[in-house]
Structure formats: structure tokens, C-alpha cells
From TrEMBL:
Organism encoding this protein: Chloroflexus islandicus
All residue ranges annotated as the Response regulatory domain in the record: 7-128
Upper lineage: Bacteria, Bacillati, Chloroflexota, Chloroflexia, Chloroflexales
List of residues that carry 4-aspartylphosphate: D63
Any one Gene Ontology molecular-function term assigned to this protein's record: kinase activity
Protein name: Histidine kinase
Length: 741
């Protein structure tokens, strides 16, 4: 039906009846528009002027008894021109025979002028117009008909009539059973309707109908046509499952388009109902809870999964507000944002905590989709709900373990790790008391304990019992009985690492632990055991490294003393220059690790002289040029000797570069200024100072003042001026030359 108000053409030659009609229609709907024509001739001329595609009327109200013509002729003319107008017959006489004739001629409804017809006429005409235009809309859709002819029939005339009067019915003629079955097998007959026209009833035709419906599972509706006198044939076909039948009596052609349309749309309606049934079944059988609510949040429908999820039966939920499930865990701003989004026509998806009928809380993931009516106005909401409590629990569990692992990772000893561990466990489980027992020599001992469990330190018998109980336990258990903790919950979780018990984690609180909490405690115990085991390994490794480092340093000091003896240096030369070099380097900002390498480099500063022949190294007199050339190779020999030893690589700066000079005149590489490593620049000052203030076979030791004056004089030439400045400060602070003794 068009969306505008009704516009009717009234063809009535009685002005009194026309006035009554107008009054009755306006009482029914004050917006109805009526155009009145009072004669056959005027009506015929007016109808002739109308467009066949877009006439200005929705319907024609036609009086059959006109003074100057027959109303049935006007009806026939309207239908012959295919004017898209509903026709309602208005008659005061002629009886049922006249009405039936009008309906057969194509009238859509009728009103007889008797009794209270004026009270009913408005509704009758409006409904007739609605039906007609609904059918017109349907006729805009093409319906394909497989027209199967058996025997000599008038099929060509029938098809021609359908093409002329019902062009939306597209016929595909097929002659005989063989052609039909072949076409079906080849997929060439994908039609909406199968129409079987049988000149004479045959058993073969009934067999064909049976094969199509029962064996080939033909989904298209079948209509059979038979000649008058053969009514038994279509009745048998009906029993086999055909959709309809036509007896080819006079006027059957007018009935045929209606029968085809009705069969097609009944089939569509059946398919639609089947889809709706399947959809309804799918909604009811869905694993996820589904709820439909109106625009105000009032629940209209829920599926069985909703009851499983929330505990509310459908009868308890329907008619209630969706607030029924609110837990109070989301604030008003949460729901305001949610409603703003869905009322704007946008789907919403998110997580929230809801409350079941029994009061328990659960985590839910929900998608809410707005549904609009035919005018585009949001009228309902469909909510699909899924219980994700287990998923959230797993996520929280992973997050908790990750947070504990992150907090424990920096700890390098039991003393650093245990307070962090116990603090986290106490916070997570809301424990009143907590303790960590450490395994040693087959027995458990208190490592750290807080509050109630601190009394374990004075209960060796209880510790012994705990040691026995946890000897073969792999998961958390209750130990309240061993502690005589009546009314308290005390849980112990064994800590296993490398297949051995390293300790036990105890916690005490007022309420029992849930299964999920016990699983989490077990995971934390495993994490803690590995962390504790790691700290044990780290402490063992650190102790081994310290022993190894001490052995290395003792070896280096041994080498240093041996070098002093071979080089006939003054006693303690290497020790003295090493200590003063380290002190100056510390003053100049070297780190502890760097000072360790400075110490080693200073002790080994002359290690390269092991490659210098004794004849040159111990020569009592001055060296010639060739001997000096050999002597100046000892820094390079030092590098060749020490570089293969990986842990001494950072200590090479001093042995290699302590004979380089600030002005670039040193050896072995002639480095200049800050090209020389700082450690070597520091050592160069200390080494010269120690040599000047020590007795030599060829001269006596210089005084402190004379040596310092020489050092100052060489600043900027032999020595780094900044190093000389710091050197003087350190010497002045020492107040004596004790470091050189």
C-alpha cells in the first residue's frame, strides 16, 4: 500500500448514496480523499485518460447499477487496461449471483447496501486496497513456471494468455516426461513452480508426480491441470503432495495466475517459516545466553542458556529490567557510556561482572546490538552473553604469576628474595600470618615467619612433624592439625626444585582457600622454588667466582714479585706503584670493576720483560741503540703474552701503554694526549715517581721535593697535566712518603 492517504474514485449515479458514502468514509478516516463521477459515460472517459502505470487513485468504488451503462463493463475495462487499482463493488441489488460475477471478473471486494453497511464500509474498502497493492507489489517479482505438457492440450493458448495478462509469470514450456527429467538432471529447469497440464489423466503422470516429490525431493511447488470430468486425477495428485490443482472449466484462465501466485507465495511463506523455526531453534539451542530487551531495558525474551548462566527462569526474567543482573561492580558512568553507544545505533561489546539469582558473581562478555523498526527507530536490543569467569581467572592467574616473577627476578639471595615473596603471597591470599621454612640436612627450619606462625621457631617438635609430612607431598595441604590451629585455615605448599624439597611455604587465614586459590598457591610455590633454587645457584657461583678471582689475583701478585726479583727492582716496587695508581684512579672516578683491572694491569706492567734476554735486562752499564730497540719491545710482548687470557683483556692498558708520553714521543705506538688510556697515563706518573725516589745501583734516591719538581716540569710533555694535578693532591693528603716504603 502506498504511504500516502487513500484517494478513491467513486462511480455512483445516486447523489444521495454518494453523499452517504462520503460521510461514512470521512468518519472512518478524515484524511481520505474522494473523487466522485456520476455516470457510466463520464467514468469510462475518465478511466480512459488515466495512466496505466501511475493512476492518481488507490481504488475504485463502483456501483454496478448505473443508469447509462453496466458497471461490470467498467470493471472489465479497468482490468483489460491493467490499471493498478483496487475495485470494490457497491450494489444495492442483484443478489449474490451479481456479486459472484463481479468477483470472477476481477473485483477485489464488495459491499451490499443493506443493514449497517455504512458502519463497515470504511474498513472493507481500506483492507481491499491494502490487499490489492500488496499483490501488485508481489507481481513486480518474476515467477518462473516450468510448463509441462502431456498430450494434446491448449498449452500455447494458456501461455499466451499468461504472457498478456500476467507478464510477471515467465513460462518455460517442456513437452513430456522425458524432457522434464532430462532438464532436471542437467540443472536447466531452475524454476519457481512446476505446472503439469494433462489432456487425459494417466497413471504415468501420477508416477511422475510421485517420483518428483518423494524420490527427487523436488523443492518447487507442483500444480496440476485436468479437463472437466477428471476430478479424481488432481485429487490423487493432492494426496501425493502437489500444491494445488486447476479444473479447466470455463474461466479457468482467470484463476490460473492466482493459483500460481498463491502456490509460490505459500511456498515462500513456508520456507520463511522454516527459516524462522530454524532460527528460533538455533537461538533456543545456542550455548551462549541470548536476551532481547525493549528500548527501555525491559526483558522480552531469553533462551534456556540465559537460565543456565543466571539462574533466572524465563518467567522470572521476562518483564523485569536488565538491572536484575547488576552486581554493583560497575559504576553509573559505565552504564551511561554503554547506553549512549547503543542508543546511538552502535553495537557495544565489553566485559562486566554480573550477579546470578543465587547472589554469586560471574564475569561476562556481552555484545549488545540495537534493532530498528521499519521506520529506522531503535526499538529493541539483542544481548549475547558468555560466561568468561574461567578465562578471567586464568588471565588473573597469569598476571599474578608474572607480577610475582618480575618482583622476584632481581633478588640474588634468600635474604633478598624471601621478604618479597612472603609480602606478595600475604597480599594475594589476604593471609593473617605467613612463614617460609627452609630445608637443611633433611629437616625444615624457620627462615622467616610473621605473626601467628612466628611461634614455630620455639616448636621443634612441630617442625619435625612438618618435615615428615612434606617428605612425599607434591601439592598444597592443610596442616592446621599439626599446629593445633582449631578454627583456623593453615595451608602448606611444598617448594620443589631440581627434584628435591628446598622448603615449605605456610600461610594462615580465617577462611578456607577455594580450588582456584589452591591451584594458584601451587603455581606460586613452583615459581618460588625455582627462584630460591636460582639464588642458591647464584650464591654458589658467586662464591666460586670469588675463590677463582682470589686465585687469579694471588697468581698475578706472584708473577709481579717474580718480575721484581728478575728485574732487580727495589723490594715492593710493584706493590707500591699498584696501590698508588689505584688510589689516584679512584680519585679520578674509576668504578670498582675498573679499579680491579687497574690493579691487575699495574701488577703486570712489566710482564713483557719476561721476553727480554737477561744479557740486556741485567746489563750493568748503559744499553746501546740495538739493545734499546729490543728493550722497547717489552710492552708489545706483554700484549702478546696476556691477550690470550680473556679475563686479563681489560687490564692490558697499563702493560701496553705505560711508556707512551703526552707529547707523542713515547713507545711502542707513539700515542699522543688522550689517545693514551687514562689508566696508563696515571701509572706513568706513579712509576717515574717511584723510580726517582728509590735507590738504584747507579744513583741514590731523590728527595720527595726534587721528584715532585721533576714531575711538575714534565707535565704537558711526558705526563698528562690533569693526572699530575691529582697526583700532587693525593701525595699532599698522604703527608708522607709511607706509600713508597
Amino acid at each position: 500500500m502506498p504511504p500516502h492517504h487513500l484517494h478513491l474514485l467513486l462511480i455512483e449515479d445516486n447523489p444521495f448514496d454518494a453523499d452517504l458514502f462520503r460521510r461514512a468514509m470521512l468518519l472512518h478516516d478524515a484524511t481520505i480523499k474522494i473523487t466522485h463521477i456520476d455516470s457510466y459515460q463520464a467514468a469510462y472517459a475518465h478511466l480512459h485518460s488515466l495512466s496505466a502505470t501511475a493512476p492518481p487513485y488507490d481504488g475504485v468504488v463502483l456501483d454496478l447499477h448505473l443508469r447509462d451503462g453496466d458497471g461490470l463493463d467498467l470493471l472489465a475495462y479497468i482490468r483489460s487496461r491493467h490499471l493498478p487499482l483496487a475495485v470494490i463493488i457497491l450494489t444495492g441489488g442483484g443478489g449474490d449471483h451479481m456479486v459472484i460475477s463481479a468477483l470472477k471478473a476481477g473485483a477485489d471486494d464488495y459491499v451490499i447496501k443493506r443493514d449497517d453497511y455504512l458502519d463497515r464500509i470504511g474498513a472493507i474498502i481500506e483492507q481491499a486496497c491494502q490487499r490489492f497493492h500488496s499483490q501488485q507489489a508481489r507481481r513486480s517479482q518474476t515467477i518462473t513456471v516450468t510448463y509441462v505438457e502431456f498430450g494434446a492440450t491448449d498449452s500455447e493458448a494458456t501461455i499466451h494468455y499468461l504472457q498478456r495478462t500476467a507478464p510477471h509469470l515467465h513460462c518455460v514450456p517442456v513437452r513430456g516426461q522425458r524432457a522434464l527429467l532430462h532438464g532436471l538432471a542437467q540443472g536447466q529447469l531452475a524454476s519457481d513452480i512446476v505446472l503439469i497440464d494433462c489432456a487425459q489423466p494417466r497413471l504415468a503422470v501420477l508416477d511422475l508426480v510421485k517420483e518428483l516429490i518423494q524420490f527427487r525431493r523436488l523443492v518447487q511447488p507442483i500444480i496440476v491441470m485436468a479437463q472437466p470430468g477428471n476430478e479424481e486425477f488432481p485429487l490423487q495428485a493432492l494426496r501425493l503432495g502437489v500444491a494445488d490443482y486447476i479444473i479447466k472449466r470455463e474461466g479457468f484462465l482467470a484463476q490460473l495466475p492466482i493459483a500460481i501466485e498463491n502456490a509460490h507465495y505459500r511456498d515462500q511463506l513456508h520456507q520463511q517459516n522454516e527459516r524462522l523455526r530454524l532460527q528460533a531453534q538455533a537461538l533456543n539451542d545456542a550455548a551462549n545466553a541470548i536476551m532481547i530487551a525493549d528500548r527501555n531495558g525491559i526483558i522480552e525474551w531469553v533462551n534456556p542458556a540465559f537460565t543456565t548462566l543466571t539462574g533466572y527462569e524465563a518467567a522470572e526474567a521476562i518483564g523485569q529490567s536488565t538491572r536484575l543482573l547488576r552486581s554493583g561492580k560497575q559504576d553509573r558512568t559505565f552504564y551511561t557510556a554503554l547506553w549512549d553507544q547503543i542508543l546511538a545505533g552502535n553495537p557495544w561489546r565489553g566485559r562486566l561482572i554480573n550477579r546470578r539469582k543465587d547472589g554469586s558473581l560471574y564475569h561476562e562478555e556481552m555484545t549488545i546490538t540495537p534493532v530498528t523498526d521499519e521506520d529506522g527507530v531503535i526499538s529493541r536490543f539483542i544481548a549475547i552473553k558468555q560466561d568468561i569467569s574461567e578465562q578471567v581467572a586464568r588471565e588473573q592467574r597469569r598476571a599474578t604469576l608474572a607480577a610475582i616473577g618480575t618482583s622476584l627476578r632481581p633478588a640474588q639471595s634468600w635474604a633478598e628474595l624471601t621478604p618479597i615473596l612472603l609480602g606478595k603471597v600475604r597480599e594475594i591470599f589476604e593471609a593473617e600470618s605467613i612463614a617460609l621454612l627452609r630445608q637443611h640436612n633433611g629437616s625444615l627450619h624457620v627462615d622467616i615467619a610473621l605473626s601467628y606462625l612466628a611461634t614455630l621457631e620455639q616448636q621443634p617438635a612441630v617442625l619435625a612433624s612438618l618435615s615428615d609430612r612434606f617428605r612425599h607431598i607434591s601439592g598444597p595441604i592443610s596442616v592446621a592439625d599439626l599446629l593445633s590451629a582449631t578454627g583456623k585455615t593453615v595451608i602448606g605448599a611444598p617448594l620443589y626444585a631440581a627434584n628435591r624439597l628446598v622448603g615449605v611455604l605456610l600461610l594462615q587465614r580465617a577462611t578456607p582457600l577455594s580450588e582456584a586459590e589452591l591451584d594458584l598457591l601451587n603455581d606460586i610455590a613452583e615459581l618460588a622454588a625455582n627462584a630460591l633454587h636460582r639464588t642458591d645457584l647464584f650464591e654458589q657461583l658467586r662464591a666460586a667466582n670469588a675463590e677463582l678471582r682470589a686465585a687469579y689475583d694471588e697468581t698475578i701478585e706472584g708473577w709481579s714479585r717474580a718480575l721484581d726479583l728478575r728485574d732487580r727492582e727495589t723490594e715492593g716496587h710493584s706493590r707500591r706503584v699498584t696501590e698508588l695508581t689505584v688510589r689516584i684512579a679512584a680519585r679520578m672516578g674509576f668504578s670498582e670493576e675498573e679499579l680491579l683491572h687497574v690493579r691487575r694491569g699495574a701488577l703486570l706492567h712489566d710482564i713483557g720483560k719476561m721476553g727480554i734476554p737477561d744479557a740486556i735486562l741485567l746489563k750493568p752499564g748503559p744499553l746501546n741503540d740495538e739493545e734499546w730497540a729490543i728493550m722497547r719491545t717489552h710492552p708489545t710482548l706483554a700484549v702478546e703474552l696476556l691477550r690470550p687470557i680473556a679475563f686479563l683483556a681489560p687490564a692490558l692498558d697499563i702493560p701496553w701503554c705505560h711508556h707512551e708520553k703526552w707529547d707523542g714521543t713515547g713507545y711502542p705506538r707513539g700515542l699522543r694526549g688522550e689517545e693514551i688510556p687514562l689508566a696508563a697515563r696515571i701509572f706513568a706518573v706513579v712509576d717515574v715517581y717511584d723510580a726517582l725516589t728509590s735507590d738504584r745501583p747507579y744513583r741514590a734516591a731523590w728527595s720527595r721535593e726534587r721528584a715532585l719538581a721533576y714531575i711538575r716540569e714534565q707535565a704537558g710533555r711526558h705526563f698528562d697535566p690533569r693526572v699530575v694535578e691529582v697526583f700532587e693532591q693525593v701525595i699532599a693528603e698522604m703527608g708522607s712518603n709511607d706509600i713508597m716504603r
